[in-house]
Design a protein that fits this description.
Blueprint: H1 5-27, H2 35-47, H3 52-59, H4 63-75, E1 79-83, E2 91-95, H5 97-121, H6 123-141
Antiparallel strand pairs: 1-2
Helix pairs in contact: 1-5, 3-4, 5-6
Length: about 150
C-alpha cells in the first residue's frame, strides 16, 4: 500500500457506507436525510435531547446553521422542539418517533452491510479491522477528545 493511501481508503469506505445507507433508507421513506443529519440524530439520541446552541457546538456550526438544520428536520418530522424541563425560556430538541425509527433502520442497514463485508473478507478479518480501528480511535483520544461529528 502506498504511503498516504490508508486515510483515503478510510474516507472512501465511510463514504461508500453512508451513500448506501442513505440510498436504502430513502427508498424506505426516510427522505432528505443527509450525513449531517445522522450526526445530529446520534447526538440527540445519546443525550435524550439538546438545545440548539449545544447541538450546533457539537456539530461545529454556528447557532444560525443549527437553527436551520433543526427547522429542516422538524419540517420532515424527525425532531420536535419541546419546553426545556428547567428553563421556561428555552426549548429542547428531541427526536420524534419517526426520527428514532430512522435511527433503527440506519443501524439495521449498517449491520446488513457489515455482514456483507464479513462475507467479502471473512469474519476474522472484519473483526481485525474493527479492533485496529478501535485502537486508532483510542490512541487519538489520549491526545484530545474524539467526537463523532461532521468533518466540514
Amino acid at each position: 500500500m502506498a504511503e498516504g493511501e490508508l486515510p483515503a481508503l478510510l474516507a472512501l469506505t465511510f463514504r461508500a457506507l453512508m451513500d448506501e445507507v442513505h440510498e436504502r433508507i430513502a427508498a424506505e421513506g426516510f427522505d432528505g436525510v443527509r450525513p449531517a443529519h445522522g450526526f445530529a440524530f446520534q447526538f440527540l439520541s445519546v443525550r435524550g435531547g439538546a438545545g440548539v446552541v449545544e447541538l450546533g457546538e457539537h456539530l461545529g456550526v454556528t447557532k444560525q446553521a443549527a437553527v436551520q438544520l433543526v427547522d429542516e428536520l422538524e419540517r420532515r418530522g424527525y425532531v420536535e422542539r419541546r419546553p426545556h424541563p428547567s428553563d421556561r425560556r428555552a426549548r429542547t430538541v428531541v427526536l420524534t418517533e419517526r426520527g428514532r425509527h430512522c435511527i433503527d433502520r440506519v443501524v439495521a442497514v449498517s449491520a446488513e452491510i457489515e455482514q456483507r463485508w464479513a462475507t467479502l473478507i471473512g469474519p476474522g478479518e472484519l473483526d481485525a479491522v474493527r479492533t485496529g480501528l478501535g485502537a486508532f480511535v483510542a490512541d487519538a483520544g489520549t491526545r484530545r477528545p474524539v467526537t463523532l461529528r461532521p468533518v466540514w
